[in-house]
Amino acid sequence: MTALLSLSGVTAFYGAIQALRGIDLTVRRGEIVTLIGANGAGKSTLMMTICGNPRARTGQILHEGQDITQWPTHRIMRRGIAQAPEGRRIFGRMTVHENLLMGAEVAGRTDIPDRLEQVFALFPRLKERMTQRGGTLSGGEQQMLAIGRALMSRPSLLLLDEPSLGLAPLVVRQIFSAIRDLNRATGLTVLLVEQNAYQALRLAHRGYVLVNGAITMAGTGAELLARPEIRAAYLEGGHA
Amino acid sequence: MDYAYALQQLINGVTLGMIYGLIAVGYTMVYGIIGMINFAHGDIFMVGAFLSMIALLGLAALGITWVPLALALTLLFAAAITALYGWTVERVAYRPLRGSFRLAPLISAIGMSITLQNYVQVSQGARVKPIEAVIPGGIQVMNQGGFTVELSWMQIAIVATTLAILAVFTWLVKRTPLGRTMRACEQDLKMASLLGIDTDRTISLTFVIGAALAAVAGLMFLLYYGVIDFYIGFIAGIKAFTAAVLGGIGSLPGAVLGGLLIGLIEVFWSAYFSVEYKDVAAFSILIIVLIFMPTGILGRAEVEKV
């Protein structure tokens, strides 16, 4: 299997504060890889650094063999990388339809109806809400919209930042099963950031654990789930 | 009641309000997208007025005197070159400061304002420049007790052109992919870039459109008043800024509404109270409105950007 995305020795800063310390990470084509860690560990920063905002200060980010480390965000996103970012960032004063169209901007706005149908097949709720403003959706619907918007560009790599945050367990299950279906059906590669470690590790082929901006553990989902230190730090209390 | 007199003031006020509204759109768009007040925008309007004058005189020298053609060419020329000024100002004075502290581009904008004023003062001279009336005459609407209400062709042209341009512009923002991109950038610049949008390009475009609309306002100001100087951008800029804030900064219909209100307040105050205090009246209304509606008449509650 070839690496779709690989990071080596990536560091990133917010002002004087170092947020990432020498990150090495690989995502292979067709994989679901998860990144788990506590609040403030640098998970979202890592997702944003892949997208060039903030740019990596040192180290290298390769996408399909191309060095994209110093590229501006919009160019990176035109390479078939899409992100449903932390906090969803729905355009609240645009309709659901317009939000989805924004996702297809990079695709040169071609075969829009097809793309819309695919998203609606995955999240039928969005179709019902099509003419509603993004800001009026519930949290779960907004998350669906954020993922749907990212999928509109038909990415080869989907970055998902905490899709389960603040959602009811039922909705989380729905969203996670949508991700699994997509991965199986289309071979979509997913890098998933989660605090909900149990669900994420069960879904993912492999996982990384991020602590204080550095990767401390890596392995398959099952391996990590079995590690006692993972259980102690991320699973106890949540799911036994 | 003296309806005729009031009607005349209404006509004058609406005309003036249209000019303010056109300038205000530029303030409000730039604020909407990058959260800064472009203090040089009034001077961009002034540059537009000067370019219009140069074009009109140049066309007259070339023998193109058929008014509709001359005006259309002037409009195109002034809008294009002024847009270039707007683009350059953003590129030179604001973009390098993006990501800097919040006041930096504001200070830079004041610098650009002074630069443009001095540049025009030096290159065009400090004296007031008059032009002949390009569209003379008008129609008499009514006559009451010896007072004739006149609606000049010029006023009709100003109002009609402004409404047409605003209609096209509204359609552009609301209905086209380009407009959608602009709205996306206005709502969340970071997310827009995550969707592959070149946000720097969209910001440049905002300045270009704002400057082009200011150039239209500049041409109308020139035609309406017949005199311009290098300092007209300051007062008109402050008024249009007031209009944008009054209407709710960040809101496009708000900018036009605010412009109309400022124009009407100014004209009616001058007509019924005193000309000297017209600016005081306009700014007082602003203060009163802001006390009760801090985000302006059509403003949104969540305008403040983080």
Compute the separation of the termini of chain B in Å: 51 Å
- Overall outline of chain A: globular
Largest beta sheet: strand ordering of chain A: 6-7-8-3-9-10
- SS elements, strand count of chain B: 4
Count the domains of chain B: 1
CATH topology of chain B: ABC transporter involved in vitamin B12 uptake, BtuC
Q: Please count the helical segments of chain A.
A: 10
Radius of gyration of chain B: 19 Å
Mean pLDDT of chain B: 91
- How far apart the termini of chain A lie comes to 34 Å
CATH class categorisation of the domain at 1-80 and 186-240 in chain A? Alpha Beta
Query: What percent strand of chain B?
Result: 5-15%
Instruction: Specify the CATH class of chain B.
Output: Mainly Alpha
Q: Could you give a short description of this structure?
A:
The complex is a heterodimer of chains A (240) and B (306). With 240 residues, chain A is an alpha/beta fold.
What does this structure look like?
The complex is a heterodimer of chains A (240) and B (306). With 240 residues, chain A is α/β, with parallel strands linked by helices. Chain A is 37% helix and 28% strand. Chain A has helices at residues 43-50, 73-77, 96-103, 112-122, 124-128, 139-151, 169-186, 197-203, 221-226, 228-235, and strands at residues 3-14, 17-28, 32-37, 58-63, 66-67, 81-84, 157-161, 189-194, 206-211, 214-220. In chain A, the strands form 2 sheets. In chain A, strands 6-7-8-3-9-10 form a 6-stranded mixed beta sheet, with helices on both faces. Chain A is globular, with a radius of gyration of 17 Å. Chain B has one domain (3-292): ABC transporter involved in vitamin B12 uptake, BtuC. Chain B has helices at 3-34, 41-62, 67-94, 103-124, 153-175, 177-187, 189-194, 199-225, 232-247, 252-272, 278-292, and strands spanning 129-130, 138-144, 147-152, 227-228. In chain B, β2 (138-144) and β3 (147-152) form a beta hairpin.
